[in-house]
Queue: 2 jobs
Job 1
Amino acid sequence: MSEPIPILDLTAQYATVREEIEAATLRVLGSGRYVLGAEVEAFEAEMADYLGAAHAVSCASGTDALHLAVRALDIGPGDQVLVPAFTFAAPAEAVALTGAEPVFVDVDPETFLIDVQHCRNALTPKVRAVIAVHLFGRPAPIDALREVLGDQVAIIEDCAQSFGSEIDGQRVGTLGAIGCFSFFPSKNLGACGDGGALATRDAELAQRLRALRNHGSTELYRYDHLGINSRLDELQAAILRIKLAHIDDWNRKRQNIAEQYQELLQGFASCRLPELVPGHVWHQYTLTTSKRDALIAQLQADRIDCRVYYPHPLHQQPAYARWAPEHPLPAVERLCAECLSLPMFPELKPEQMQRIQDSFARAEV
Ligand SMILES: Cc1ncc(COP(=O)(O)O)c(C=O)c1O
């Protein structure tokens, strides 16, 4: 029987950096400093440098990064924030936890990204920000959002799935007011545990974020803001520093894989493949198909992992239904019914991709 093909193989990546990570881990363990120390400081500087951002502030997760961003912009009860309804729950969750109202908007059915015209239609005087999710690694239309929403609406970039992605040579996370990153292990730049960070060009905002992530404290036992405990630990920072040096190479490999998929999977009539665009870093390779159940069944029979990211529109979930818009969001609903993500990781081999094509052919999709 053939070997299973996973959707993601973190052990394959670990094998390529194992010695460096093990040495760094032992160094940190022996240092006696485990939270917010020299490794975190160095990682923040290296990340800011990589992005071309003036400031990077680390925290405990991507969800916290989004929550801290909303809090740092003084958004709360009575305010609204536009969020796409086709994404992971964290952006809506981060907004709702501040007491502000997440306003769910539709996405572009071709790009899967927040729909700019729909944002324009949803604009009210209460809208203080939009969370632009660079979904699956594809950069969201930041310039168009800015043009339609104006300067009064802050752009918070959700870069959880898009470390290294860029628009016209400028890295995502540096294009709006604040960029929010996740280092959950499965991300393009992933830690060996939870982690997150924020990027901004605004020194005052960076200072406030630093305080908010550490109990609102600006100096020891002095609390100027109501903060939370959301700090990156030294082990994760040391590991991220090592992986940061490889991110461009890993992202290039993902781009090559997407190009190969594009050739291999052309011509399956029920499938619409994602467009190859510059700056995309392919956190996921996600297509749509009207024959999803049959395709999943065949892939499973052939021991090929695949996932539905995302099966349910956010505004139809019990936790978020109270903020459901009055009119339907047709593109989100259709994508939830038709999307399918295939194996995508830098170490995916050509022969594994060939097996995936063979499986598509057997499924007769
Ligand atoms: C688009 C998006 N935003 C935010 C998050 C939250 O990140 P974390 O899991 O680090 O809290 C994730 C990931 O899990 C995500 O995919």
Note: The pocket of pyridoxal-5'-phosphate is lined by residues 61-63, 87-88, 90-91, 133, 158, 160-161, 182, 184, 194, 196 (CB under 6 Å).
Job 2
Amino acid sequence: MLTVKELKNDREILDLIAVTEQNLEALGYTEHSTRHLSIVSNWAGDLMREIGGSEYEINMAELAGFLHDIGNAVNRSMHAQSGGVLAYSLMVQRGMSTRDAAELMLAIGNHDEKHGSPVSRIGAVLILADKADVHKSRVRKSAIITDNNDIHDRVNRAAERSFLSVENTEKTITLNITIDTEISSVMDYFEIYFSRMSFCRRAAAFLGYKFSLKINNVVLL
Ligand SMILES: [Fe+2]
Ligand SMILES: [Fe+2]
């Protein structure tokens, strides 16, 4: 079966990721390079493993994580849907079964909170892993130099660390974030994370778990 290791050495995939990053840099969005994609891929695989997923599901979650943002090479708007369709044909061309490629398409096509929903286990872990990646290294240097007041940049710039943890006895998936409150207030997080967090809650519920948000070790959700 195809693995992320092969995708990381695949010229066509790397070109799509490069153009994704070019587009989002031009639009002033946070970093979406192989750093973000590798992290989401690892976290999606880890989460699938921790909730008891099969080797097949773990590998599919990793693939979905690595490919989930390539639709940005087409357009930011509807990037989940265009990325899902792109991933489907790329994977079929590389020998994946049409059924598995369709599962990947469904997961990727539903990772964005505007139009998506958690409708499969692979898709649900992808949503949680993607939303968990808030980190100061994702803010572009240009945004730091001009010290613009964009709330997304401020919130990312304040994030020292974030990770997902799973409690199987309590059936809880927790997003833990450590923030520097000198840069961003907890209220800033609520403001931009409100819709994201309800999306995470729906994703966790699909997996049979509750969702919890902890900021600076304080349980907020
Ligand atoms: Fe995305
Ligand atoms: Fe993403």
Note: The domain at 4-219 is CATH 1.10.3210.10 (Hypothetical protein af1432).
